[in-house]
């Protein structure tokens, strides 16, 4: 997290850089096989002008239910710098080839155009990410720039937009294997987040038929970038439950930011915040489904939050949305390897989100 945000009212701790460096080395080794062999089959629902074909699980879909679209393209992992945020989508996609989740359909989509990014981000910053100059601005999210960064971030941010469009179109759930969004500001990146696809998706939805948008941010870290861009928007409400003080902010209006410091309080806090939304009406929920609250994550983890807790969190969120017939679009968000969290375990954590998204309500 190379550059403190200018408008960031951070009050909490930041990850120790040396620990972070060790973590990234570990991650780099772990992703060596991430490219892997792909099993290609064009998704039936792939849009015209798609960037590439996409592998689709061959499992039969449950009867009577439309599949949940899960957006992904190989460009999501194009940047040269290899760590969780730039490789994790491929790990999860590969896991779906090897062990499909019934009811979930990997689907390709178009990348964002520069104009779509410019609707939220400053021209000088967008140009820096595209060209690499000035380099400190191009790398303000905290990892080295290379020419594949721009195609990567317009693809992965486009996944958030595609998921929001699909959720609105179907009235149901859709997702994207995107991460690295919620710390990004208008004029620079932060905390491994280059552009803020949550904000781009919210504003595009509001420019269409959506009248009000809810953003649930249950990543371990606070979503200060999202709040800096939408905290005063009258048609957006942000519910942020974090377990780490990085990128904290003072929530404006009806927005809320909880920093949970005890695992015992984690699910009750989320349950209470969801219940408090019952009197409000939304047309779309954008869900930043970070797995970095897991106790094994060196960046963000809280002791006592394990896979069972996070699985229950995901069931709570998706059941809550389904019971209200609220269209929901989710992205992966944070999740980091550590001495006690191996790559397959991290993938399994993110699959908790996918499984809950694909399941019928309890
Ligand atoms: Zn995080």
TrEMBL record:
The keyword Secreted does not apply. Residues 1-20 are annotated as: Disordered. GO terms for biological process: epigenetic regulation of gene expression. One of its GO terms (molecular function) is histone deacetylase activity. Keywords: Membrane, Transmembrane, Transmembrane helix. Pfam families: Hist_deacetyl (PF00850). Residues 86-343 form the Histone deacetylase domain. The chain crosses the membrane at residues 21-40. The keyword Transmembrane helix applies. Belongs to the histone deacetylase family. This is Histone deacetylase domain-containing protein. It comes from Arenimonas oryziterrae DSM 21050 = YC6267.
